[in-house]
Design brief:
Layout lengths: L3 E6 L5 H9 L3 E7 L14 E5 L9 H10 L6 E4 L5 H11 L6 H4 L5 H10 L7 E3 L3 H10 L4 E5 L9 E3 L2 H11 L6 E5 L3 E11 L2 E10 L3 H7 L3 E5 L5 H17 L4 E10 L5 E7 L7 H9 L3 H14 L12 E8 L15 E4 L5 E8 L2 H18 L14
Parallel strand pairs: 1-2, 1-4, 2-3
Antiparallel strand pairs: 5-8, 6-7, 6-8, 9-10, 9-12, 10-11, 11-14, 12-13, 14-16, 15-16
């Protein structure tokens, strides 16, 4: 059979997913917005390309009407959200059209930071001390019990967008007053200094079939709010750090009940007690070149494997991983002052991938040698900061649709 896969993309991403779906013999339909019209989509892998006339794919009932119209003549098998902002929309559409996959309630575990923390805590996964921003007496009690500083986080934004560090209760009450009716869409949690890690996984039939652990050079929140070079590198194989991260990652995925697909989860190792705490999880591929980082360390590209799990599920077939590689890789990415940075002097033999994007610079370096990768990532981060780096003010919300 030829699966028909409909993909939602509010932003330009997921080209490798589309290519792999096509390579697996699927019919692919992309639904996106007009602002992505001129992006470099893999048109050869897209059978039907629809740019909706409204700017926000989450707009109801318009998106439901649009997909219902397409389904009059297309027996769509699966709906996939290529962007984090489309996860809940795709879940609502699956519910409406009674299609398999993650439903609306479960989608909140992968989009709503309050929902995922509450679920994790219920399942005995360590999380930073947190509270909702609903009931003021409960909030006051939390402030009295949990010493600051704290971070006030939007429940449904991606990355570190909209996060604010709070040092004093008066600062919190002032901020909540400024938020007005929007304050219930935030949560408050204790700020934990420490090293931040990400684990990227492929899940099949509720089992973690693949997971790769990496350490951020700087916490994403630090880079997002203070500028600097984004970096990440593979942790040492078969060491205590890798074992602990893979264990808590499995615990989180089991708690969230994901049956199949990919995840990008983040954890922090607290400076205070050395324990690992769950920060967040998304049912998507990590951004900023993380898929290439994982690929060059392991031979697994999360975008491609996600597509293979979707197609296998439609066909009722077993999913199998490609042959794994146990190397090390490092990722270095930054905004650039130059429109098209000249990176020709970055030419080490370990350099395996370059980012091609306006006003950006990025590399992946790979080797069998852990220490060699660490040295290269440190060297490249410093050089990129000197040669190219630019900063932009952090966004409180996504760009207006």
């Amino acid at each position: 059979m030829q699966p028909i896969i409909l993909c939602l993309a509010s932003y330009f991403k997921g080209g490798l997913f589309l290519e792999e779906c096509k390579q697996q013999g699927s019919r692919t339909i992309l639904v996106t917005t007009q602002k992505t019209e001129h992006e470099d989509w893999p048109r050869h892998a897209i059978d039907e390309f629809f740019m909706l006339p409204f700017p926000n794919l989450a707009r109801q009932p318009d998106i439901t009407y649009s997909i219902a119209y397409l389904m009059r003549e297309r027996a769509i098998d699966r709906i996939v959200a290529l962007d984090d902002y489309d996860v809940e929309t795709a879940a609502d559409l699956r519910e409406h059209f009674r299609l398999p996959g993650m439903g609306a309630s479960q989608a909140r575990f992968f989009r709503d930071k309050l929902a995922m923390r509450t679920r994790a805590a219920q399942m005995s996964v360590p999380v930073p001390a947190f509270t909702s921003v609903f009931h003021y007496p409960t909030l006051s009690d939390y402030l009295a019990r949990v010493p600051g500083p704290w971070v006030l986080k939007p429940r449904a934004e991606a990355s570190a967008m909209g996060i604010k560090k709070i040092h004093h209760p008066d600062e919190l009450w002032q901020t909540l007053g400024e938020l007005g009716d929007r304050q219930s869409y935030f949560l408050l949690e204790k700020f934990l200094p420490g090293d931040v890690f990400h684990v990227d996984s492929v899940v099949w039939q509720g089992e973690v079939r693949f997971a790769a652990a990496h350490r951020y050079g700087l916490p994403p929140m630090t880079v997002y709010h203070g500028g600097g070079v984004f970096a990440s590198s593979t942790v040492e194989h078969d060491g205590e750090v890798e074992r602990d991260l893979l264990a808590i990652n499995r615990q989180v995925i089991e708690a969230m009940g994901l049956e199949r697909g990919v995840t990008h989860a983040e954890f922090i190792r607290s400076e205070a007690d050395g324990r690992y705490y769950f920060l967040e999880i998304a049912a998507r591929v990590g951004g900023a070149g993380i898929d290439r980082l994982v690929e060059h360390a392991t031979n697994v590209n999360p975008w491609r494997e996600w597509a293979r799990t979707v197609v296998a599920d439609v066909r009722g077939e077993e999913y199998t991983l490609p042959a794994l590689r146990h190397d090390y890789a490092g990722l270095v990415v930054s905004l650039a002052r130059q429109e098209w940075p000249d990176t020709s002097t970055y030419n080490d033999p370990e350099l395996v991938w370059r980012l091609q994007k306006r006003h950006h610079v990025g590399f992946v370096l790979a080797s069998h040698d852990y220490e060699r990768v660490q040295t290269l990532v440190s060297d490249y981060a410093a050089r990129v900061a000197h040669d190219f780096s630019a900063t932009a003010p952090p966004l409180e919300r996504p760009p207006e649709e």
